[in-house]
């Protein structure tokens, strides 16, 4: 009798674990969507270029994906100069880690990464847009204020 009871408890436990891990059709988890797969490939390619110290081409290749982004526009030129500066002044590129991603249907993908250099770290944000015909980078930005955000989040608990 004890074996049957143990098996019943184990079966219930396994059923519970399986139900917690399974995704439902309404779960809003689009992490395996075509949009997500496309974006991850583009982001990985971007970071691979940085890894081999080809950071100028990495940014240009990313921005060229959207014909509406003018590489000669003053805002884009400024972004490129700042990006060059951080790659030259922050030490050796070490790697990146996904902080957060948000996928809205199969239309918009927003990705936030922690990017590590030997002397400093940054947050890189990529936003991609699927206009129905193609997926393009919509916005790319970076900042070094992630440490301020982390400190603020810790204050809530102190």
What does this structure look like?
Helix content is 47%, strand content 26%. It has 158 residues and is of the alpha+beta class. Strands 1-2-3-4 form a 4-stranded antiparallel sheet, with helices on one face. A hairpin with a 3-residue loop joins strand 1 and strand 2. Helix 2 packs antiparallel against helix 3 and helix 3 (55-64) runs antiparallel to helix 4.
Q: Tell me the number of structural domains.
A: 1
Number of strands: 4
Question: What form results from the Cα inertia axes?
Answer: globular
How would a textbook summarize the main sheet? Answer: 4 strands, antiparallel
CATH architecture: Roll
How many angstroms does the end-to-end distance come to? 52 Å
Helix-strand pattern, N to C? Answer: HHHHEEEEH
Would you tell me which CATH topology applies?
Nuclear Transport Factor 2, Chain: A
Helicity level: 40-55%
Structural class: alpha+beta
Whole-angstrom Rg: 21 Å
CATH C-level name: Alpha Beta
User: Strand fraction band?
Assistant: 25-35%
Q: Enumerate how many helices there are, as a single number.
A: 5
| Low-pLDDT stretches | 6-30
Kindly report the average pLDDT value.
82
Going across the major beta sheet, what is the strand order? Answer: 1-2-3-4
């Amino acid at each position: 009798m004890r074996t049957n009871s143990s098996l019943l408890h184990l079966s219930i436990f396994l059923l519970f674990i399986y139900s917690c891990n399974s995704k439902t059709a309404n779960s809003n988890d689009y992490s395996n969507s075509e949009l997500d797969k496309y974006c991850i490939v583009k982001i990985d390619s971007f970071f691979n270029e940085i890894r081999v110290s080809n950071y100028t081409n990495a940014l240009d290749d990313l921005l060229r994906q959207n014909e509406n982004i003018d590489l000669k526009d003053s805002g884009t030129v400024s972004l490129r100069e700042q990006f060059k500066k951080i790659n030259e002044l922050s030490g050796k590129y070490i790697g990146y880690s996904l902080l957060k991603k948000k996928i809205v249907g199969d239309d918009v993908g927003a990705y936030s990464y922690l990017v590590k250099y030997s002397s400093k770290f940054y947050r890189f944000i990529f936003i991609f847009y699927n206009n129905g015909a193609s997926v393009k980078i919509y916005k790319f930005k970076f900042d070094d204020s992630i440490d301020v955000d982390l400190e603020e989040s810790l204050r809530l608990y102190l």
